[in-house]
UniProtKB/TrEMBL annotation:
<dbReference type="GO" id="GO:0042393">
    <property type="term" value="F:histone binding"/>
</dbReference>
<feature type="compositionally biased region" description="Basic and acidic residues">
    <location>
        <begin position="477"/>
        <end position="486"/>
    </location>
</feature>
<feature type="repeat" description="MBT">
    <location>
        <begin position="262"/>
        <end position="369"/>
    </location>
</feature>
<feature type="compositionally biased region" description="Basic residues">
    <location>
        <begin position="488"/>
        <end position="505"/>
    </location>
</feature>
<dbReference type="Pfam" id="PF02820">
    <property type="entry name" value="MBT"/>
</dbReference>
<dbReference type="InterPro" id="IPR004092">
    <property type="entry name" value="Mbt"/>
</dbReference>
<dbReference type="InterPro" id="IPR050548">
    <property type="entry name" value="PcG_chromatin_remod_factors"/>
</dbReference>
<dbReference type="GO" id="GO:0005634">
    <property type="term" value="C:nucleus"/>
</dbReference>
<keyword id="KW-0677">Repeat</keyword>
<dbReference type="GO" id="GO:0003682">
    <property type="term" value="F:chromatin binding"/>
</dbReference>
<dbReference type="GO" id="GO:0045892">
    <property type="term" value="P:negative regulation of DNA-templated transcription"/>
</dbReference>
<feature type="repeat" description="MBT">
    <location>
        <begin position="159"/>
        <end position="258"/>
    </location>
</feature>
<protein>
    <submittedName>
        <fullName>Uncharacterized protein</fullName>
    </submittedName>
</protein>
<feature type="region of interest" description="Disordered">
    <location>
        <begin position="477"/>
        <end position="505"/>
    </location>
</feature>
<feature type="repeat" description="MBT">
    <location>
        <begin position="48"/>
        <end position="151"/>
    </location>
</feature>
<feature type="repeat" description="MBT">
    <location>
        <begin position="376"/>
        <end position="474"/>
    </location>
</feature>
<feature type="region of interest" description="Disordered">
    <location>
        <begin position="1"/>
        <end position="25"/>
    </location>
</feature>
């Protein structure tokens, strides 16, 4: 069966009756059916159920991307999904049986579905990832010769299912034909395994290292350090923390590398010729490089910045060394090491640096320099330090205002930026201008992190299931998740500098 150009149902497929074999076991919790629809990522998400958690916390998920398409997925829209309440062996792909369902509620990539024929009975409602390979537009089963049969629990409710379905389905909205291709396109990543690039040194963040991609999942890269056997770093492919081979030499950034690498990088910069195993510059985040002189930050200028090594804080900061192509090193006032080993590299277009009084304007607490005495005021501080502030017009958050789509309480899946191999169950704790404050469920305020609303390190609920990445569940209040605590050793004293500031995990 096909759908018309406006994705409405026009023709009905044939329906198969269930035989008399015993029905498959279905578990139910909190009034909704818990169904495990087979996916490639089942092992990664088996330990946590977003559906149950949303009900327990009375929460909603943040909207999914591709709003031009996702916004069309409204309650009542029809789909074809696996029928888990039938007598056929679901372990045999040839015997998968489907049935019609409609959307009750959409949260992130997930939808609460109800089988056609259940009417007002919500006892069989189930959560499903709409990007699942076994969710299809109405008509897919007919086109592919896949059997359709009503769930056994409701089969007796209709004597003429075909007439019932004519009334329910003809003219109803279903998934657009472009739905799955658009989802797949949004997840494409140009990077490949074994490509060579430059990546931040997680042990000494003022340095870069040579890295090789060892894994690509959902646009996230696992990068092995070439000079640190056994060590790796996870990052999104659009991150500011990775750059093409030769970038460090081109902009004047410190890098730990062999003489052989230096010679090859110099040659690449001169010839603009890249071997097949090296990631080319066009694959990386695009930033403006030929900035006018009046758009450059200058050494010594003061500003406000999210502390890159303690992201629950926004702090006074100072422009350190100015590099080429719009890059510069930034130090957090009162916290940075004297040798500059924990200075962080930013580009002028970064959305995590702000003009002075940004926090005051947006009612965000500004963390004064560690050890600072008295109430912090910028005018007073500039006089005390004999400093000047960076002009407002230099900042991307001022030049390019964005609509922040988040609201407090929305649930998301978020990368823990202090341990970026972890993607965790999280919520929006605060919204301010372009920023959101991410709270990791089950963890205290000290572990919260400020990120930009356009960050590629926050995802709609269901993302981990979609791409096959492990989702870290909330920490239970009655017990310590000791394994996760071991992976988050960066919590620092609020009264003194520590060497832990020099590294990520």
């Amino acid at each position: 069966m096909a759908t018309t150009s406006n994705e409405t149902v026009s023709v009905l497929p044939s329906i198969t009756s269930n035989n008399s074999s015993p029905p498959q076991q279905i578990s139910r919790a909190n009034g909704a059916t818990i169904i495990s629809i087979p996916t490639a990522s089942a092992d990664a998400i088996a330990s946590f159920s977003w559906g149950n958690y949303l009900k327990e916390t009375n929460a909603h998920g943040a909207p999914a991307p591709l709003q031009d398409m996702w916004g069309q997925l409204t309650p009542g829209m029809k789909v074809e999904v696996i029928n888990t309440d039938c007598s056929y062996n679901l372990n045999d792909p040839k015997e998968k049986i489907f049935w019609f369902a409609y959307i009750v509620r959409v949260e992130g990539y997930l939808a609460l579905l109800r089988y056609e024929g259940c009417d007002d009975d919500s006892s069989m409602d189930f959560w499903c990832n709409l990007c699942n390979k076994d969710v299809h537009c109405v008509g897919w089963c007919g086109q592919h010769g896949v059997k359709l049969a009503p769930p056994r629990s409701i089969e007796h409710r209709q004597t003429d299912w075909k007439t019932f379905l004519v009334n329910k389905l003809v003219g109803a909205k279903t998934l657009p034909d472009s739905f799955r291709p658009k989802i797949q396109s949004s997840l494409r990543c140009p990077f490949k395994k074994y490509m060579l690039l430059e990546v931040i040194d997680k042990f000494q963040v003022a340095h870069m290292c040579v890295g090789k991609i060892s894994e690509v999942i959902g646009g996230r890269l696992r990068i092995n350090y070439e000079n640190k056997p056994g060590e790796h770093f996870w990052v999104h492919h659009t991150s500011e923390l990775i750059h093409p081979v030769g970038w460090s030499y081109a902009v004047g950034h410190k890098i730990e590398a062999t003489d052989e690498y230096e010679n090859e990088a110099m040659k690449i910069n001169e010839t603009n010729s890249y071997p097949a195993y090296i990631a080319t510059p066009d694959l990386f985040r695009n930033v403006p490089v030929n900035l006018p002189d009046d758009e450059h930050f200058k050494e010594g200028q003061k500003l406000e910045a999210v502390d890159p090594l303690e992201m629950s804080r926004i702090c006074p900061a100072t422009v350190g060394k100015v590099l080429k192509n719009g890059y510069f090193m930034l130090s957090i006032d009162g916290s940075s090491a004297e040798d500059g080993s924990d200075w962080f590299c930013y580009h002028s277009s970064s959305r995590l640096i702000f003009p002075i009084n940004f926090c005051k304007t947006n009612k965000i607490p500004l963390s004064p320099p560690l050890g600072y005495q008295g109430e912090f005021e910028w005018e007073k501080y500039l006089l005390e330090t004999n400093s000047v502030y960076a002009p407002q017009e230099l900042f991307q958050v001022i030049k390019e205002k964005t609509i922040n789509p988040f609201t407090v309480g929305m649930k998301i899946e978020a990368v823990d930026m202090m341990a970026p191999h972890l993607v965790c169950v999280a919520a929006i704790a605060k919204v301010a201008d372009n920023l959101i404050r991410v709270r990791f469920d089950g963890w205290g305020d000290d572990f919260e992190q400020w990120v930009d609303c356009q960050s590629m390190n926050i995802y709609p609920i269901g993302w981990c299931e979609l791409v096959g990445y492990k989702l870290e569940p909330p920490r239970q209040t009655e017990q310590e998740n000791t394994e996760l605590v071991k992976q988050r050793p960066w919590k620092k004293s609020s009264t003194r500098k520590t060497n832990k500031r020099k590294r990520l995990t």
